[in-house]
Amino acid sequence: MAPYRGIFVHGFAVDAEGRKMSKSVGNVVDPVDITHGGKDNTQIVYGIDTLRWWVACHATQHANIPVSSNVVTSSAESVHKIRIVLRFLLGALHDYTSNHNEDDLFLLDRYMLHLLHEFHHQVQNAYDNFQLNKVCILLTNFITNEVSAMYCHVIKDRLYCEPADSTQRRACQFVMSHILEIVTRAIAPVLLHLAEEVRQNNKYFVITGQQLFRSGVVMPEGDWHQTEVSRVVNLALEVKRALNKTCSSTNTQQLKASVYTSGETYCLLKLMQPEEYSSWSQLAEILQVASVRLIESKSPLKFHVELAETTECHLCARCRRYTSDKTDEPCTRCRQVLANIQPQ
After folding, report:
1. Domain 227-312, CATH 3.30.2320 — does that match?
2. Burial of 37 (0-12, 13-18, 19+ CB in 10 A)
3. What's this model's pTM, rounded to 2 decimal places?
């Protein structure tokens, strides 16, 4: 019987031109040069996590693994992007307590948990099969696209402008707390120092005194997997992509959108906006517009979006949305929030 369960074979490191490394040629790259800037400290200090990320990205993908300043710099940039998102999540959770009711979650929140459930199992499967390059791809795509560009961007109004203890704000904090925990555990085998740094600044671990690598395995809840929720939100995101193609400006907050649709598409979008017109619906949040008018039509098209500048409302100086009735005054929502803020 073999004294091991499997054998893992990695590739062979070569220089930028594909030549094997040789002291006589002078093309050997010392790992210390990457992690500590070389013996004379004249080079960029990338750190151990960048070196580990480079190994994970390339060592199992090719027979010959090129090492060059461009490749290492690219690895450092990838690690930095992940770090920025994790730092944002930590900052957003500074006042969060873990007693939130999941019944208050928006459809977008449930959709994010659905994606988190899928992400966890995909990463776990890649680790189990030593597909470390796939782990890096999954991490990069999920963190930069789903977490940062989609979810964190859309929920900023709830996070910054709703009352601190409101169900809307706590709902997105609940989701971000789970994103932070599962993503931190997903990066830990590769970016162990970054993962440990997150642990040291995460109130949950600080309170319990747990060490990340001794805290056991955390599995996403089974009921996070919701295909029907995914179907509804993906439809709303499809409308958003069509809206962005129609709009010449990157800032859509000053626009009011009219969405014409029928049949099943109309029924699904109604789940995100039961009323015909709204500035505060879940659909308006995803589309990132001043208001949405959802109109049932008899058009054969799946949906049709028309945009126009809002003239009825003005810019709210607090939330930066075009939802105020008067110029240079907060909108109704922000006036209520400000009125209930207790003086320190």
Report:
1. yes
2. middle
3. 0.92
